[in-house]
Specification:
Length: about 220
């Protein structure tokens, strides 16, 4: 297959997103949160865990510990007990406590609004930072998770598994207004149709646009 120009990829991606918007009109962040700090905690908890499971833990958690000062007062062990059911609870508890302390020490307890500042917080990577920027602050960002990585590669929009490269390459060919929504659309599609190792290509609205389609 001849190499596709960047402008052709941009056009194809626009059509992909248009079809996904039609297929998943309600696509949005499925984590429940009341403010940017709570989204930050929820996103840390969502690593290697379903959003559904996180949403079962967080309402009670945020009722007992609403802000960074509350988590900073707890030990790692105490936080671990609260979030046990989300898995990897020791690492997550360390991240939440460290992140809370850093917010209090460096940002007056407020969640910062830039990628650089967010990724400087313990336990916060680009993926988490982009989730918070896009969903809590309305600042466009492309979140690259396993679904986005898998589907954008299958679609031939990128040819790398490196999340930072994928984010940058997609930014070059995607309208800024779609940056935040795109991850929700790919995640919905990855759960419903383009399922890892058993994609349902015969039912996929993207089949004619997808070089990875299995006939
Ligand atoms: S055609 Fe198949 S591989 Fe391509 S996006 Fe759809 S389900 Fe995934």
């Amino acid at each position: 297959m001849a190499r596709e120009s960047k402008s052709a990829r941009r056009t194809r991606l626009a059509e992909v997103l248009k079809r996904l918007k039609d297929a998943y009109p309600a696509a949005s962040c499925s984590l429940r949160y009341g403010n940017p700090f709570q989204l930050l905690v929820s996103t840390i908890l969502s690593a290697q865990c379903t959003d559904e499971r996180v949403n079962k833990v967080t309402p009670g958690l945020f009722l007992r510990y609403p802000g960074p000062e509350d988590f900073a007062r707890l030990t790692v062990e105490e936080i671990g007990k609260e979030i046990y059911s989300t898995g990897f609870y020791n690492n997550k508890a360390r991240s939440i406590r460290g992140m809370s302390l850093a917010l209090l020490e460096r940002y007056g307890g407020e969640v910062p609004r830039t990628l650089e500042e967010l990724v400087s917080l313990p336990g916060v990577g680009r993926k988490t930072a982009n989730v918070v920027l896009g969903n809590a602050f309305g600042i466009p960002g492309i979140t690259v998770d396993t679904h986005v990585t898998r589907i954008t590669n299958l679609l031939g929009l990128v040819k790398t598994k490196d999340a930072v490269k994928i984010e940058k390459e997609l930014m070059e060919i995607m309208d800024r207004e779609d940056w935040t929504l795109s991850a929700h659309l790919f995640i919905e599609h990855g759960r419903a149709v383009c399922i890892a190792r058993r994609p349902r290509c015969s039912e996929c609205v993207l089949a004619d646009l997808c070089p990875g389609a299995i006939p």
